[in-house]
Specification:
A hairpin with a 2-residue loop joins strand 5 and strand 6. It contains eleven helices and eleven strands. The protein is an alpha+beta fold and 282 residues long. The chain has a six-stranded antiparallel β-sheet with strand order 2-9-4-7-10-11. Strands 6-5-8 form a three-stranded antiparallel β-sheet, with no helix packed on it. Helix 1 crosses helix 2 and helix 6 crosses helix 7. The chain has helices spanning 98-107, 109-115, 129-142, 147-154, 174-191, 198-204, 209-220, 224-242, 247-253, 259-270, 274-279; strands spanning 6-7, 18-26, 34-35, 39-46, 49-53, 56-60, 65-68, 74-78, 88-96, 124-127, 165-169.
């Protein structure tokens, strides 16, 4: 999935500590991949489609209730044919920061007694039948309440303590991906003057060939072969600018085994031959 994640802040309402919305939208509106620094409790009233939460893609349907933890990449992609006669889907959503939970625990012993000692979930959760029924009823009733009433109701369902849920996604391991890409880059830097076989680089990072190719394309937006070629051409450009090596020597120095092929790839990529490129810096 080659979406660009949109970090956005939920709309801030003056003198409000949380965000509640009853939304009817066209199916295309809810297809953006995004993250925000808030818990998101989401009830699908009408519509169905696929939900991405962290590293997991799952179907959803009307009646589903899910909890998305803060900063997790997610999106709700509604199927166009799930809209009502007016072309809309509907959901109820309440969002609140974790600092609100902590402040309320500090002020209200009743909430503190309920939540002290629990481990707040780091995974996205889909609630089971019993919990979903309770949460749907409370979120629906919020429409007819003022803000104080909504605040009082918000922590009534046991969203953090209920065991009536299933796994719906875990955070992407960004640090792991960064380390793995660094490992790949170091390998290319050390071996680009020779032929780099996909099986070798895949084994270097503990993956099979197929998984590696899919992973690399997802992370870099290009194939591994394209990446190596780009690295070799960038290195060739630096040598053309800063060394006295002949074009033929540079060709083999950067890992191309055929001079005509090197010239053709260089020209197609940079729009000029290696010799012409060099003359710009003389």
């Amino acid at each position: 999935m080659e979406d660009t994640a949109i970090p956005y802040e939920l709309p801030e309402v003056e003198n409000h500590s949380f965000f509640f919305i009853d939304q009817r939208v066209t199916t295309s509106i809810e297809a953006k991949l995004h993250r925000h620094d808030a818990w998101e409790l989401y009830y699908v009233v009408h519509g169905y489609g696929k939900r991405m939460a962290g590293d997991t893609l799952q179907p959803f349907a009307a009646g589903d209730v899910a909890l998305i933890p803060p900063s997790m990449l997610h999106r709700w992609e509604y199927s166009p044919d799930s809209a009502d006669d007016d072309g809309h889907v509907r959901y109820l959503m309440v969002a609140f920061s974790h600092s609100l939970v902590e402040r309320c625990m500090a002020v209200f012993p009743e909430l503190r007694n309920r939540l002290t000692g629990i481990t707040f979930p780091t995974n996205a959760l889909k609630f089971g039948t019993g919990s979903s029924q309770t949460i749907r009823r409370i979120l629906s009733q919020m429409n007819d309440m003022d803000e104080l009433g909504r605040l009082c109701e918000m922590f009534r369902p046991a969203i953090f303590t209920s065991s009536d849920h299933t796994f719906a996604g875990k955070p992407m391991s960004i640090e792991r991906d960064v380390r793995r890409m660094q490992q790949i880059c170091v390998y290319v830097m050390a071996h680009y003057i020779h032929t780099i076989f996909l099986d070798d680089i895949a084994a270097e990072v503990g993956m099979n060939r197929s998984a590696f190719c899919s992973y690399f394309k997802r992370c870099k937006g290009m194939t591994f072969s394209q990446y190596v070629t780009q690295y070799r051409l960038n290195t060739a450009c630096e040598l053309l600018k800063h060394s006295q090596k002949q074009v033929s020597e540079i060709c083999f120095t950067v890992g191309f085994n055929d001079l005509p092929h090197f010239v053709r790839v260089f020209t197609n990529t940079l729009g000029m031959s290696p010799s012409k490129y060099r003359r710009q810096f003389q």
